[in-house]
Amino acid sequence: VVAGGGGGGDHSGGGGAGGVLYSSSFSVTAGNTYSVTVGGGGAASSNGSDSVFSTITSTAGGRGAGPSSAAGNGGSGGGSSASDAAYGSGTVGQGHDGSTSGNGGGGGGAGAAASGSTGGVGLINPITGSTAGQNVSGIYYLAGGGGGGSYGTAGNGGGGYGGYPGSYNQGGSGAANTGGGAGGSGGDGGGQQLPSPGGSGIVIFSYQAPVQKA
Predict the structure, then answer these.
(1) Distance CA 78, CA 45 (A)
(2) N or C: which end of the chain has fewer CB within 10 A?
(3) Phi-psi bin for 169: left (phi > 0), alpha (psi -120 to 50), beta?
(4) Contact at 8 Å (CB) between 117 and 104?
(5) pLDDT tens-digit profile of 99-144?
(6) Is 146 exposed, middle or buried (0-12, 13-18, 19+ CB in 10 A)?
(7) What single string gives the DSSP state of each residue in 62-128?
């Protein structure tokens, strides 16, 4: 169960990835109804939305920091801005903290905390046969953190890259159905700063076929 990723910050923290919760033995009963909510990615400078399957709720990713908004806490925390060293905290068991950097910190990923302007790496998709997530050399990652502004690098798992200074100052959006955080906008003080939205989450099922009696 992967929540929506956080939006990128305006100059220039990366958004945190959506939280990830996995159960290998969730019991279901034939004929019962189970609620499913797929969390949306956060708009620019906003937290994402939670994803839900029955009693399992994954926490949305935190927004990247900007001049007028602090980094958000969440499944994974958002990165700091160039002017504010505070980063967002992740939720234990779901994700990791964002980071701080002079150019804007990266957002935390589900698999690891961010480091400097680099977003944290996501988790390898644990569902056998599923191709959901970002394909990196045949391995599918979910919920990577967004890169901090000014050339920040996203973590594997659908996180957006950090925006470039100058005319290429918009960070990359988190990829849909990954829970990836968005990249923060570039920050050279010139031009319009354009934060980006986080990636929507996803709920993945795999079930064992019933045993046929002879």
Answers:
(1) 10
(2) C
(3) alpha
(4) yes
(5) 999 888 999 999 999 999 999 999 999 998 999 999 999 999 999 9
(6) buried
(7) PPPPBTTBPPPPSSSPPPPBTTB---PPPPTTT-------TT-PPPP-SSS--BTTBPPP-EEP-ST
